[in-house]
Each structure stands twice: as structure tokens, then as C-alpha cells.
Amino acid sequence: MPRSNVIILTDPESDLSWHQNQVTVLPIRGEYFRDKLMLQRIRSYIIFLEIKLEKLSQEQGRITHFIFTDSDIAVIDDLGQIFEKYQDFHLALTFRNNKDQPLNSGFIAVRGTRDGILRAKNFLEKVLEAYSSRYMKASRMLGDQLALFWVVKSDASFDAKRFSKAHAFTKEIGGASVLFLPCATYNWTPPEGAGQFHGMPLDVKVVHFKGSRKRLMLEAWNYFSSSTDISDMLCLILKSGRTKYDF
């Protein structure tokens, strides 16, 4: 995505000296304690959207869409098509066929219109409230995902069975039009199993190196960058093992 800009949300104390075009570091004050890290991330997303909402009023006519991702994610295709193909959503989440944790918070897309930013911010505020009131004792890496699902399933008309099929769909949730995208394409995780040979589906646009898979990020990215076709990555051996924090 050569026209995109990368914004790193971090704490004010961290020294991230970054000398690369189209990369900006945005420090946000908050509680960056280990047991509150995911809670703070939601707060940081909300603050970021508030900043963009204010700037939008000063930049009439200019629309910039936003995608929040984990730092262990690699984008390997142009995600701008999401906003063109699905034109009626305010924010997008990714789902998988998992009864207790169907939503993964590692990828959240927000339409850059005033209405899109405002409704996405309001939605995340509901998630923050659910996290603070219900899931503070959850594992430090799970609270936000459980809170996301709580907000979604609190809508009486929502049918969680739709998560069983890897097809995108849109649903009005808490005043926001939410686009649900399958993890198989937009938040794909390399299969588990040390030393096993695994292929990569050709329609994958986002790769999520969860848990111990993080050690494969540089190798996989260099391999992908040096190849001429995404299908070449089908030959990559992903030597990943399951870990306690593999969510």
C-alpha cells in the first residue's frame, strides 16, 4: 500500500527514533502497565479517533481511512479495496469460527468520514465500558476480544451462527454499521505445528504472527518481498508451535 502512512501509537516514555518516510510516532498518555495494556490500547484508539475527528473539521473534503493492527501483523495486499467494495460500513472487525472468542482485535478498520469516525469511536467506547466492568480479571491478552464480542452479542437480533461461515457480512450494532470480515482472508494466522509444511491461501491479505510465530515475521516478510508472486510463499515452512499466549 504505497500511498498509506504508518502511525505508531505508543507511550510518551518510549524512545522510538524512526527515520523512515511515511512513518509517524504518536505518543499517547495512559496506563501502560502489563495487566492494563489491552485496555489502554482501546483508550488509545479512541483518543486517536478523537484527534482525527477534530482535524477532519479543519480539512473539509479530504477523506483518509484508518486501519488499527497489532504489531505482529504483516499486510501483504492493498486493503483500500475494503472501503471500495463495502461502502456502507463504519468500522470493520475480523471473525473466525470460535464459539467463545470469535472476534480478533488485531485488525479494526474505520471509514474516514465524519460519521464513520464518530460511530466507530462510540462503538469502541462501549467496548471500553464492557472491558472495564466485566473483563478486568480476564487474561491480559483476552479482555478486549471478550469485550468486543460482548458488545456485538448484546444486540438481540445478532446471530452468532453467522461466524461459522467465512463470508463477509454487515450488521447494525449499537448505532454503528459493522462489517464482519473473515479472519481467513483479513487476519490469517499461520497454522500450528513445529516443522510442518503449510500452504498459504492465495486470497490472504493480512498475516497475523501470533504467539511464538512472531519469530517468523522477518523471515517470512523478506521471503515475500523478494518473490515476484504471492504463491511463492506457499513453499515457506512455518515452524510455529503453540504457546500459552497464542490468541
UniProtKB/TrEMBL annotation:
It comes from the Eukaryota. This is Nucleotide-diphospho-sugar transferase domain-containing protein.
